[in-house]
C-alpha cells in the first residue's frame, strides 16, 4: 500500500490566454420541443421509433434548458469558465428548413446576451444533428439541396447574432451525421444504406463550405471553423500487414474522409477505393472541393478514445447487422471496411465501454499539427472531451466523481504534452456542462460535470465541476504519482 507520504505531485501550467470552457448541444438539453414555433427535427421523429433509443427517452423535456437558460449561464460563470460552446437548433430557428422563426432566433439572442453579460465568450455551432424533419422528408443529407438550405439557415443566424458572436462552427462531427446516421442506423434518421452515407458525407462537407462562404460574407471579421471527431486507430499487431491495413481503413473512414477534403481539397485515394462500391464522391460537382477546402480559422477537435483494429477473421462470417443500443438492428459505420475487428487492449473503460487512452489525444494533436493544421497555419481547440461514468448522487444530488476527475486530469495532461511538442492548441472545452440526452443511449449515460435530476430538473455541480473550476481559474493542473 502507498501512503500519502509516498505520493509526489507536479504541476502543469497552461499558456496565458489558454481557454477553459464547456460545451452542450441544443437537442440534448433544451427541451421545449413543441414550443414557440419549434417543429420536429429528425431526432424528435427518431425517438418515436420503438427500439431506437434506450428506455424510449427523448429530448422533449430533458434538462429544460429552454426555460432555465439564465440559471445555466450563471452556473457556467460561477465555475469561472471563459467559453461556452452551444448549438442553435435548426428546427427551432427555421422549423421547416425555410423562413426564420422569430421566437426561435430570439431565444439564442437572449442566450448570447446572458453570456456576454456574465463575461463568457459564446461559441456557436450551427449544426449539431437536429435537421428539420421536413428537410429529411425531402431526402435529408442525401439531397444536395439540404446543403443550400443550411446556407440559408447560416445566413439567418449570422444576420441575427454576428454582431455579438465572434466564433462560429459550421458542423459538429459530420462523421456522426453521415456514417453513423445513414450507414449504421444508430443516429437519426436511422438508415442503414452505405450509398446514402457517402452521399450525405459529401453534402455535409458542401454545407460546411457554403456556410463558410456565408459567414465570410458578414461585415465583421469572424472566427470560422468546423468540429471533427477523431479516433486514433492502431493495428492490433503492428507486425501483421492485415492489422496494419485494418487500422489504415478505420483511419480513412473516420478521420481522413473529412480532413483531406477540408485541408487538401480532395478525398484520399485509398478511401475512394475502399468506398468505391458505395460511390464516395459520385455526387461531387465542379467547384465543390474549392468550396469545401476554403480556409478556416480554427479546427475544433473532439476526442474520446482510440482503438486497436485487426484484419477480418476469415474463419468467422458474422452478419453485417447487430442490435443497437435500443434494440433495433444496426450496421457498421465503416463503409467498405465493415468486417474490420476492434480488439480490446485491456485498458480501463468508461460507462460507454470506450477505452480510456489519454496518450491518444497527444498523438492525435501532434498528427493534426504535422499533417493538416500546422501547414495551413490553423490553431486547434479541444471542443469536446469528457466521459460518462455510472455516477451515484447522494441525497443532496452531489456526485463524488473521482473517476471523471482522473479522466479530465489525464487528458488535460495529454493536451499539455502536445503543446510542449509544438501543437498549436488554444483551448479545452469539457463535454459536457450538464447530464443530458445521450442520443440513442437515452438519459442513462451521464457526461455532465453538473448532475441533473431528471425528475426535479435540479442542477448540482459534481466534484469534477469544482475541480475543473480550479483549473480554469488558475490555468494549472496538479498531477499526483
From TrEMBL:
<dbReference type="GO" id="GO:0005829">
    <property type="term" value="C:cytosol"/>
</dbReference>
<protein>
    <recommendedName>
        <fullName>beta-glucosidase</fullName>
        <ecNumber>3.2.1.21</ecNumber>
    </recommendedName>
</protein>
<dbReference type="InterPro" id="IPR017853">
    <property type="entry name" value="GH"/>
</dbReference>
<dbReference type="GO" id="GO:0008422">
    <property type="term" value="F:beta-glucosidase activity"/>
</dbReference>
<dbReference type="InterPro" id="IPR001360">
    <property type="entry name" value="Glyco_hydro_1"/>
</dbReference>
<dbReference type="GO" id="GO:0016052">
    <property type="term" value="P:carbohydrate catabolic process"/>
</dbReference>
<dbReference type="Pfam" id="PF00232">
    <property type="entry name" value="Glyco_hydro_1"/>
</dbReference>
<keyword id="KW-0378">Hydrolase</keyword>
<dbReference type="InterPro" id="IPR018120">
    <property type="entry name" value="Glyco_hydro_1_AS"/>
</dbReference>
<comment type="similarity">
    <text>Belongs to the glycosyl hydrolase 1 family.</text>
</comment>
<keyword id="KW-0326">Glycosidase</keyword>
<feature type="active site" description="Nucleophile">
    <location>
        <position position="384"/>
    </location>
</feature>
<dbReference type="InterPro" id="IPR033132">
    <property type="entry name" value="GH_1_N_CS"/>
</dbReference>
